[in-house]
Amino acid sequence: MPSLEPAVFHAALRDQFEVFLDEHRSALNASLDGLTEEQARRSLVPSKTTLLGLVKHATFVEKVWFDEAITCRSRAEIGIPGSPDESFDLDDGDTIASVQRAHRQACAASRQATAELTLDDIVRGNRRGPLPLRWVYLHMLRELAQHCGHADILREQILSGATRRG
Predict the structure, then answer these.
(1) Which pLDDT does position 6 carry in this prediction?
(2) What is the CA angle 141-142-144, rounded to 5?
(3) CA-CA distances (angstroms) from residue 111 to 9, 11, 21, 42, 154?
(4) What is the mean pLDDT of the chain?
(5) Under a CB-based contact definition with an 8 Å cutoff, are residues 17 and 119 in contact?
(6) What single string gives the DSSP state of each residue in 22-40?
(7) What are the Cα distances from residue 150, in Å, to 62, 138, 141?
(8) What does the DSSP 8-state code read for residue 64?
(9) Average pLDDT in the 102-112 region?
(10) Is 22 exposed, middle or buried (0-12, 13-18, 19+ CB in 10 A)?
């Protein structure tokens, strides 16, 4: 893990945030690796949460926090759902490859959108109101860590052959 590299221990806070964000982004994206399309779509909980849906949702979250919040463009302009719940919805055309690719592209766009900002810069396009980029990074770490935990559990269930219990 890059976050365990000695150089990261003493890096600037911004660099540490970005290393941790990228680790979580990669881990969530990789949760789909080696699965069949059916496994990635398998529903094991009463909510809309599936592994494929989690990565699709993570793409939405990247766009909310690093496009909408920074550019002040609307969700409609960005081409994302109006609510987090809708972001878990899977279309017939959603595949492991397409969802992973969209997620990687969103993460790259997020890095680019923040490249010239400092942690103290204020982003103004979020529905909560103006927020410092530092808070956005912390929120994203919390969100990604939570979803990585969900993905770990779902993947473990899928690989053990679990089916949804109703």
Answers:
(1) 84
(2) 65
(3) 21, 18, 10, 31, 28
(4) 95
(5) yes
(6) HHHHHHHHHTTTT--HHHH
(7) 18, 19, 14
(8) I
(9) 98
(10) middle
